[in-house]
Amino acid sequence: MVYFLIIISAIFVNNIVFSQFLGICPFLGVSKRISTAVGMGAAVTFVLTLATIVTYLLQKYVLAAFGLEFLQTILFILVIAALVQMIEIVLKKISPSLYQALGVFLPLITTNCCILGVAILVANGTWAAKIPGAEPDLLQGTVFALATAIGFAIALVLFAGIREQLAMNKVPKAMEGTPVALLTAGLLAMAFMGFSGVV
Amino acid sequence: MSKALNTFTNGILRENPTFGLVLGMCPTLATTTSAINGMSMGLATLFVLVCSNVVISLLRNLIPDKVHIPAYIVVIASFVTMVQLLMQAYMPGIYETLGLFIPLIVVNCIVLGRAEAFAAKNSVGLSLLDGLGMGLGFTIALTILGAVRELLGTGAIFGQKIMFSIWGCSFNMEDYAALIFVLAPGAFIALAFLMAAVNKLRS
Lengths: 199, 203
Known about the structure:
The structure holds two protein chains of two kinds.
Chain A: H1 2-13, H2 24-29, H3 34-66, H4 72-94, H5 96-102, H6 106-109, H7 113-124, H8 138-166, H9 178-193
Chain B: H1 2-12, H2 25-30, H3 35-58, H4 68-90, H5 92-98, H6 109-119, H7 124-154, E1 156-157, E2 160-161, E3 163-166, E4 169-172, H8 184-202
Helix pairs in contact in B: 1-7, 3-4, 3-6, 3-7, 4-5, 4-6, 6-7
């Protein structure tokens, strides 16, 4: 039951884009077409889940064990950067077709703040405060990370669908480009506010 | 001299990180629930930006080309950790409100972007000015957005209630406050209209 709560909370109630404001850059940057949005969403889901597991273990068995918590930011960002590189190399060898689909998005992911953000949330255990009954352990943390990434992918694909339609409409000169995209995101965020109170 | 001045004003006006380059959107949207929060976030980023620009500019001939991105990230992350520890010690209240977004300055595109595009190619003095200009531009944008959201959402700016009277009718902005501007959707909508206004003024 608690897993169900975590999943609903991370995907809808506390959607990473619309209520946490993490990962806005790729959200605005690669949302012009549905196909690229799906690719980016899949790449983020993959990396986010793996990065969370690795950083959680590092936090517990290296940083906390030796009292080095102040090195968290430096260590995590380096581990994420290295992990992204490794995933790229491994994918190229093991599954060229998956690499074809996700390859272009992988380098962009290092500076995607939702990866580092979720890694820090899970490592510090602060994510569990919003969900009744959740324990900040590895399994629940991983489920939370996976659900958060799915929430990101859903937000991205929804937004890309709207933007594809929006591109054909006439928009006042000053609102063209980013402003109208932000306004659309604002309306979507308002829709997602309807989920508040579900969990 | 004019080149120095140009470098400094470039970040504030022409290539303003928020309104011109559209970089660093996550902290821009997330931390501007009030003018003071926006300003604190802006100043924290300003500090990191200036320090990392200077250090990277000093090291620009020493860092091998192949590992320049990881090297820059380590420099930036060190300064972010310093800001994090300093704020935790001396400004615990603001540290609590900004929370996750302090460590996330590491992945703010402006900081790495300026390191790569400016500090890696220019002298220390110019890099310092560029960092100051970009940082101030970011701080100003965040403070304005924070003030607009605070005014529309709670009827105050910097915690001061706004009251005024026109033709004998007195207005208390608190009565017209719409909480939505402090919540998530308000961030997107307020920034959209501010950006449109800036675009209009520019053309």
